[in-house]
Amino acid sequence: MDARAGFVLVGGKSSRMGQDKARLPFHGATLVEHVASAVAEAAGSVTLGGAPDRYQSLGFPILPDSRPGAGPLAGIYTALGASTAAWNLIAACDMPVISAPFLQSLLAAAESSGADCLIPSGPSGLPEPLCAVYHARCRAAIEAALDRGVRKVTDGLDGLRIAAWSVPESHWFRNVNTPEEWAAYLHG
C-alpha cells in the first residue's frame, strides 16, 4: 500500500458561478490545474474526481463519481475506493490559495495523529472537510452514511476518529463560488 495519494474534487455543478469553476483561468493555466499541482507535489500523485468528458483534456487521471449527484461525500467515497494509499489528501478544485507546503503539513499532521481523518479548521472553528486527509479505513463508514442518505460531509464521518487541526489563518480555505467572489479574489 502506498503511503499517500492526492485527489481533487471537480464534480460540482458550479451553478452559482455560472461557469465551470475548475476551468477558471488562473496564472496561465486553470484553477483546477493550480490545485492539482499543489496536491500532486504534496501527496506524490493526483487524480481528479468528476466527469471524465469535462476534464480529459487537462492530462490528469480522472475518476468518475461512483454515485453521481450525491455530492462531495460521494466524491470522497469514490476516491477512497480507487486509492491504493493509506492516507488520502482530498481537496476541492476551487481554493486558489492552496499550496503544496500547506498540504504537506496537513498530511504530516494526519499521519502522526492516530485518527481516521484529519480535518482542519480556520479561526472560525468551522471544519474544512474538502481540504482534509482521510485514511483508507474511512471508506466503510462513509459508504454506510451514503446508504442512509447522508449528504453533508461532516455528518458522513460520524463514528470515525477525527483529528481537528487548527489553522491560524483562514485564507487557505478561501473558495470561490460566485463571479463576485472570484473577482474579489483576483482584485483583493
Strand content: 15-25%
- Sheet with most strands: 7 strands, mixed
The CATH topology is given as Spore Coat Polysaccharide Biosynthesis Protein SpsA, Chain A
The low-pLDDT segments are none
**How many β-strand stretches?**
9
Q: Could you characterize the architecture of this molecule?
A:
This protein is of the alpha/beta class. The chain has one domain: Spore Coat Polysaccharide Biosynthesis Protein SpsA, Chain A (Alpha-Beta Complex). It has six helices and nine strands. The strands form two sheets. A seven-stranded mixed sheet has the order 5-4-1-6-8-7-9, sandwiched between helices. A two-stranded antiparallel ribbon has the order 2-3. Helix 1 crosses helix 4 and helix 3 crosses helix 5. The longest helix is centred in the first third of the chain and has 13 residues. It is globular, with a radius of gyration of 15 Å. The mean pLDDT is 92.
